[in-house]
Design a protein that fits this description.
The protein is an alpha/beta fold. 42% of the residues lie in helices and 14% in strands.
Amino acid sequence: MTIWRPRADILRRPVYVSLADQIASAIDDGKLVQGVKLPAHRDLAYDLKISIQTVSKAYEILARRGLVTGETGRGTYVKSNGDTTQMPYIADRPLGIVDLSIVTPVCTNLQLEKTKEALADLSANLNPSSVLSFRPNAVMPRHQEASVRWLAELGVDTAPENVIITNGASAGITTALMSVAGSGAVVAAEEICYHVIRPLCDYLGIRVRAISADKEGMVADHLRDVCSREQVRTVLVQPNISNPTACLMSGPRRQKIAEVASQLDVAIIEIDVFGPLLRNRPLPIAAYAPERTIYITGLTKAVLPGLRIAYIAAPAQYAPPIANRHLMANWMATPLVAEIATTWLEDDTVQAMIEWQRDAINARQQVVKEVLDGASYQTHPEALHLWLTLPADHDELAFVSHARLRGVALAPSSPFTLNGHSAGAVRVAVGVQDLQDLRSALGTISSLLRAKPDRNILPV
């Protein structure tokens, strides 16, 4: 059978991008199927009369898009059939599966009843502008005022006109990146980070540079080195219980990252969706570099999944372009959801539900400590997830597949890595409603860690 090969005569500058696009199109069209080995760097460079470095850069782009995977000495293989939106979880879960693959707050009848009460109150006391107005400046000022008071409790000093309200943190991250980076720009992020970052930057035409991390998260000295060598426009950082590694960055580390960004004139996007859950949280990076830090937080992870609301607190220089781009892309956050969020902020329901959530998480983390005793993992007493490092003899995808066959869904590491490769770890969410379900699922994980690895299990 003839193996598809890229064509040299249709390559355009920049050649590495054009080559990556050709291969991606072939995968999408089915000309290159899953598992097919791509030509070696040197062979393809010779065939196309281009440099080996150009081929390497093209393969790197494909890996970031989640289309190929490879290891030194084995080669590069097609990973998926055009699915550039790979998520670390399976969208639908059949009955009988304990889903530890997606991070959610603990939800019980308490959250459901609170929501029903809020909807009833909204019906009885509806602000007409929330359903009758097309104008954000007629709808959002009250919500901006309420958010400023809450942001102050989180350590962020801002003004109402500098707050942009969005439908969740992902929308906020997208708007912020469009505003302070843009197509062709270079941004820096931790080498293992929130799974949305890699595909989002690809879609926006933004180049991402991986920054090494330790148990506190991003390493400031490596950030300085990368920013000194390249025209980095923005750094993305999640200092409070980072997703997926559950790192908590110390105050001195935050201050050092702020100093690096200030010295090299780099903007900061600080993602803090888990920060509200921390009883004793360090000051945000925004407190050390308020003139350049775009701070993003929300209520979805800390309070209620369906409360799709987030707040961008931007420096005065960035607030207008962020607001304009959000206007063009989304117009405004959903007013009815904003009404519930603001009501809950004003009557302290948010704080009460966060305090309840902390206690619920503490109980689940105690189960983690008991059941996974002896395992290698990183977490925090108020974290909704943990980062479990697998023993060296375990294959990550086989481990995930084996757990799935035994009724436990886990998130593999590859969607979180900027190079798309395995980190030999899995993310385990612990926000399960039933503690016994969590104990049982963690028991399955523990037994798999102790068992002899089975590499013959097919991915599911």
